Amino acid sequence: MLREAVASAVGQPVPSLLTVAMVAGMCAAALLTSGQTAAAEAAALARIDAVGTRSVVVRADVDAGVTSAVVDRVRALEGVESVVALGPIVDARNSNVPAGRPVPVRAVYGDLGDVPSDGLAAASDLAVQALGLVDGSGSIVTTDGRELVVVAGLDVPDHLREMEPLVVIPAASTGPVAVLVVVADEPQTVAPLSAAVVGLVAADDPSAVTLETSAELAAIRAAVGGELVTYGRSAVLGILAVAGLLVAANLFGLVQLRRKDFGRRRALGASRGQIVTLLLTQVGVLAVAGAVLGTTAVIVPSMARGAPVPGLAFVVAVAVAAVLTALLAALGPATVAANRDPLHEMRIP
To answer: Which pTM was predicted?
Structure first.
């Protein structure tokens, strides 16, 4: 059936090329409109996410009584991606530069990636520069008289950038907490997670604890995403509807041109189902070719010039939707062709 459908498509070059062109245009139009919208949405949401739409920050005074035990309690909550607790600040200077710039040092509890566990302090790149550690490691002295060995390589996540320059000491025992940073799995869970975190802080003095959330940014994120998704969906549906009508009109014309061929097939014993399958297979082959052509014609030049392009899932979805639309549009003409009276069609000169 596939070979016969391909031969039939080749035998009718004009309608076949029109079908390929329509499907290619359908894909190109969808990618140039909704595809650009999807790429813009991803870029906009990434920019919003970059400023911390998923973070919950709890700040506690020294006498608030918040301890690092809160880390395990918060980590057990559903919807938590990571928890980091930082102790009170202790200033430190390079041991070789007593009059140098002081840099804050904090005890750290929770999820902060690869930090040394053998008593060493870990410093971010900014902290290394501020301390004047030319080789990336060295000795520092805190204001309370402790001498620590510092190594570079602390990777500071985005939600802790405001703490820079950052030097941390992994703490094995329970200690006081000055800052608790909780990152939610999704922006939508920030508000309920914030309420749960407040209940788990267990401060001796609740008035000495403040809560900072990104709930407003999360709401903006949801609104931006919703508006762009609605616009993109409407545009795609409109393009598919128009292109589907054009494909149907083209195929009705094809059925009229080939009515004698369909009549001859019916007279020779072909069933209505075989006629429908033949025409749908022909359209499917042409639609796949058009979808590949249309998506390639948009994506390749866009990538070459560095323009934003939608994700692979969106591109594949557009191509599949275009092929299905063409098949759906072909169903009517195929049904008409299958129900032609073979004797009547054979008598038409």
So the answer is: 0.53
